[in-house]
Specification:
Helix content: 40-55%
Largest sheet: 7 strands, parallel
Number of helices: 26
Oligomer: single chain
Structural class: alpha/beta
Mean pLDDT: 92
Low-confidence stretches: none
Distance between the termini: 52 Å
């Protein structure tokens, strides 16, 4: 299709009376959506790179899918999560393919951990390592499902939590996959999924899979990407973090324990008596424990603690633990080398031991220039991490490959017209950018309250004050409230105050707290029980979609600045300062603006939603940078005091349909 033809086809599709217009009102294109779709069509036709920030309600999914489908070019779509992949593949794509009567083949491709491994399922059946009776029951359920599934995708199993301990037992990893040596290779679900992806016209993947393949060449995307004419990244704001997770290198105690367990099991099963497998495994486990203890250094740990590299490196105990790890792995390499030709499993274990050994040697040497190292240490595990500061080089390498259209889109990509927050750290500063505002009437439907006379976040009573204000507002609304905290410690403080105040006031409002149940279950409880308050941190700031009256108040505890003592943050600040730039203005405020937009975005999800956003940080109203952060938010009408906020909530409460 020639450049002008594609744009004309897209305009026709979105015009009133076109294929996307429905007489029954089930779907009607919006002007911002049409504008984005035309820009995407132009980028596809010209094989250009386009970065689009599309506000909530624009309908960006159709705005990029329609031009991609009508172009007829082979397309790769990457999104942030497996659940969004499923939504695209099972709901949005079939609808459009049917609307336009397009005979295109679509495929869904996830990471190998999302698929059943037939070989490991057989091993699990004969293993004595299942942790409890519940795991045994889950294995039996998976075995029954395995007889009739075509895809082997665990998401087909209703009620199976993706964090279930049985999934790692019956799925493969790059470490333990036997490849063509596997006795179940011909029926492998991962192989089938990759083959279908290679044969499809449109493939839906996720960001983690994209970067995993870039680094490890292990997901099938590397073979697919050169043949693609259009590459689209939805929820692109998550690309930088997803990339760093794979572009860096890591040696963790969990990987050492997993290796020791597998070496013991396979050694006893396939080479019993040929080596001292108990001794080999025990040596690696002792080294893993020594590494964690050396990094913990007597600290009291509750969650994961991130340490600067120099807090551990150079310490005698840490250096000794690294040496012990290398020696234990060297012993494992020697033991496995003697028997590895007798079994594919033993051969792969030998390769794993060599890879872990190389990592132990890597962290014994100085870090690569341009990289930052740190240590994550917790109650039960430790991770040594080396990471680049951003994904610029990796993304540029991809963009310089086979010419294609690259589309990056999200509701939050920056606070300026150039979308600098995203384009700078991805090396896309020369790309065409477009900002498409939300069609929602925020001024009429939403209020912003910033309590001016409120304890500062640095003051000891700030957390309690957040809980007290949240309790008063939620009581007026009868629940229907999210409280988003910037730290897990604050989460505990706020939830305790909420429970106490609700009990004292006789309010029958349930407090749901992150970590007490799986995220999906907590959200389901929140929607089904309007008289509730959900308190969450981190992952609850984005990707949550609760439309309608179920959620009408979002309270944020403080401005979400990056933690200044985080090693990665420190390294980025040092680089900016070395370039003569202002780190606070160019980095801290920019990061806070993006996170604040994400949190605020939980409130208004449809044209008819109404609600109140509360930011319990007086700096948003009084500081010299407060206006810049307020401008990053949707154009909500501000209320001057708590009385105004309470009056707005009373109006919302009076309209509840239940």
């Amino acid at each position: 299709m020639r450049p002008g033809e594609l744009e004309q086809a897209v305009v026709a599709a979105f015009d009133i009376g076109g294929p996307l217009s429905r007489a029954d009102g089930a779907y009607a294109p919006r002007e911002p959506q049409q504008r984005m779709a035309q820009a995407v069509a132009q980028a596809i036709a010209a094989r250009e790179t386009l970065v689009v920030e599309a506000g909530t309600g624009v309908g960006k999914t159709f705005a990029y899918l329609v031009p991609a489908l009508l172009s007829g070019g082979r397309t790769l779509i990457s999104t942030a999560t497996k659940s969004l992949q499923d939504q695209l593949f099972m709901r949005d794509l079939p609808r459009l393919l049917d609307t336009f009567a397009l005979p295109l083949r679509a495929a869904l491709l996830k990471g190998r951990g999302s698929y059943l491994c037939l070989h490991r399922m057989q091993q699990a059946r004969h293993s004595a390592e299942l942790p409890d009776r519940r795991a045994v029951a889950q294995l039996a359920r998976i075995e029954r499902w395995a007889l009739q599934t075509r895809t082997g995708d665990f998401s087909e199993i209703d009620g199976l939590d993706e964090r279930s301990p049985i999934i790692p037992v019956v799925s493969s990893t790059r470490d333990n996959c036997l490849g063509t040596e596997c006795p179940s290779y011909r029926d492998c679900h991962v192989v089938r999924a990759r083959r279908e992806a290679m044969e499809a016209d449109l493939v839906v993947v996720n960001h983690h899979l994209f970067f995993a393949d870039m680094v490890l060449r292990d997901s099938g995307v590397a073979e697919l990407l050169p043949s693609v004419e259009v590459a689209i990244f939805d929820e692109a704001h998550q690309l930088p973090e997803a990339g760093l997770n794979f572009l860096g290198r890591m040696l963790g105690s969990a990987a050492l324990f997993d290796f020791a367990r597998d070496a013991l099991a396979e050694g006893l099963s396939q080479a019993r008596g040929l080596q001292e497998w108990q001794e080999v495994a025990a040596g690696v486990e002792r080294a893993a424990r020594a590494l964690r203890l050396a990094c913990a250094g007597g600290r009291e740990l509750r969650g994961m603690l991130k340490l600067r590299w120099n807090e551990c490196a150079g310490q005698a105990e840490f250096e000794a633990a690294l040496t012990q790890s290398a020696q234990a792995l060297e012993q494992a390499i020697d033991a496995l080398a003697a028997v590895m030709e007798s079994s594919p499993d033993l051969h792969r274990l030998h390769e794993r031991a060599a890879e872990l050994y190389q990592l132990a040697l890597l962290f014994a040497r100085p870090a690569d220039p341009g990289a930052v190292r740190w240590v994550d240490v917790g109650v039960h595990q430790v991770r040594l991490v080396e990471s680049p500061l951003d994904v610029r080089e990796a993304m540029q390498e991809q963009l310089q490959g086979t010419p294609k259209a690259w589309i990056f889109t999200s509701a939050t990509l920056g606070e300026d017209e150039q979308l600098g927050w995203f384009t700078e750290q991805t090396g896309l500063g020369d790309s065409r950018t477009l900002r498409v505002g939300s069609p929602f009437d925020y001024a009429s439907h939403a209020r912003l309250y910033v309590p001016r006379h409120f304890p500062k976040p640095s003051e000891p009573d700030h957390g309690e004050s957040v809980g007290l204000l949240g309790a008063r507002l939620a009581a007026r609304l009868g629940g229907r409230t999210f409280i988003l905290t910037t730290t897990l410690r604050q989460l505990q403080t706020v939830s305790e105050v909420l429970r106490q105040r609700f009990d004292e006031g006789g309010h029958r409002i349930e407090v749901l707290v992150q970590g007490t149940a799986p995220k999906r279950q907590l959200l389901q409880q929140f929607v089904q029980q309007p008289a509730s308050v959900l308190v969450g941190s981190a992952s609850f700031w984005e990707g949550i979609d609760v439309p309608g009256e179920a959620l009408q108040c979002v309270l944020i505890d403080k401005l979400p600045f990056p933690p200044p003592n985080d090693p990665l943050v420190e390294a980025r600040v040092q680089r900016l300062e070395a370039e003569g730039r202002n780190a606070f203005t160019e980095y801290f405020i920019a990061e806070a603006a993006i996170a604040l937009k994400q949190g605020a975005g939980r409130l208004i999800r449809t044209e008819t939603d109404r609600g109140l956003l509360v930011v319990c940080d007086p700096r948003l109203a009084a500081s010299h940078y407060g206006r810049r952060l307020r401008d990053a938010l949707p154009p909500m009408t501000q209320v001057a005091d708590e009385a105004g906020a309470q009056a707005w909530l009373a109006e919302l409460a009076a309209s509840h349909s239940d």
